[in-house]
């Protein structure tokens, strides 16, 4: 009888041990899954920031094939395509994201951005028009300003640029865009002021320095502005100033500035030399 009692007890004990091991395995598996999700999130972030755009596209293409319903991976693919300047594919990818469950207003703004990069301003405007006015973000207003610019709706553009500048801690690029908008309208003094502000916001923004020279030259002011610049930048800005002077009809001043640009550049400044030769031969 003892043996008959002992066997069920051993079986029960074995079952209990088995269940215990099974629960431990499940706990370990869940923990590993959590770690994998954290690791994957880190890889996704790296791919979207410092990774090569085309490598990121390949990474997210593989990931979306494995998990096509995960909107975060579809967003990653769309962002990577835009970063890689594959704009037509980027439009398709963001269109897919916008149609997925869990899509939000920010996704629609990204789709509008992709449309603009692809040169489809009308669809960009239509997309932004569908975004509720309560969605007030820097990117939304920056795009609104660009679209208003393209439509030559200057008051709307100024309003949107002003709002966008107030919604970011790094306004230099959008301030530069606003200045360029003023430049294209022929409002050179206002453009000059905005370019100066952009440079104060980011001393390394060469496009703003170049645009500042254009705005000054358009007003007949051919002296370089007092802004931070290295020797190469100084030579390039002198070249821009020279071409502006020539365009204004001041050929003599243009030649002088071209010679200054050639002398200033620490290396062979082929572009300026070619401009000077072409001008002298003419």
Highest CATH level, the class of the largest domain: Mainly Alpha
Rg computed from alpha carbons, rounded to a whole number of angstroms: 30 Å
CATH architectural group of the largest domain: Alpha Horseshoe
**Remind me, CATH topology of the largest domain?**
Serine Threonine Protein Phosphatase 5, Tetratricopeptide repeat
CATH fourth-tier homologous superfamily of the largest domain: Tetratricopeptide repeat domain
Distance between the termini: 120 Å
Protein name: Tetratricopeptide repeat protein
InterPro entries: TPR-like_helical_dom_sf
Provide tags for this entry.
282 residues, Serine Threonine Protein Phosphatase 5, Tetratricopeptide repeat, TPR-like_helical_dom_sf, 77% helix, mainly alpha, Tetratricopeptide repeat protein, elongated, 14 helices
Chart the SSEs and their pairings.
Blueprint lengths: L1 H48 L3 H14 L4 H13 L3 H12 L6 H13 L3 H9 L8 H13 L3 H12 L6 H14 L2 H14 L4 H13 L12 H17 L3 H14 L5 H12 L1
Protein name: Tetratricopeptide repeat protein
Walk me through this protein's architecture.
The longest helix has 48 residues, at 2-49. This protein is mainly alpha-helical and 282 residues long. The chain contains 14 helices and no strands. The radius of gyration is 30 Å and the shape is elongated. The chain has three domains: 51-135, Serine Threonine Protein Phosphatase 5, Tetratricopeptide repeat, CATH 1.25.40.10; 145-219, Alpha Horseshoe (Serine Threonine Protein Phosphatase 5, Tetratricopeptide repeat), CATH 1.25.40.10; 229-282. It starts with a helix and ends with a helix. Helix 3 packs antiparallel against helix 4 and helix 10 (188-201) packs antiparallel against helix 11. Mean pLDDT is 87; it is low at 1-21 and 31-39.
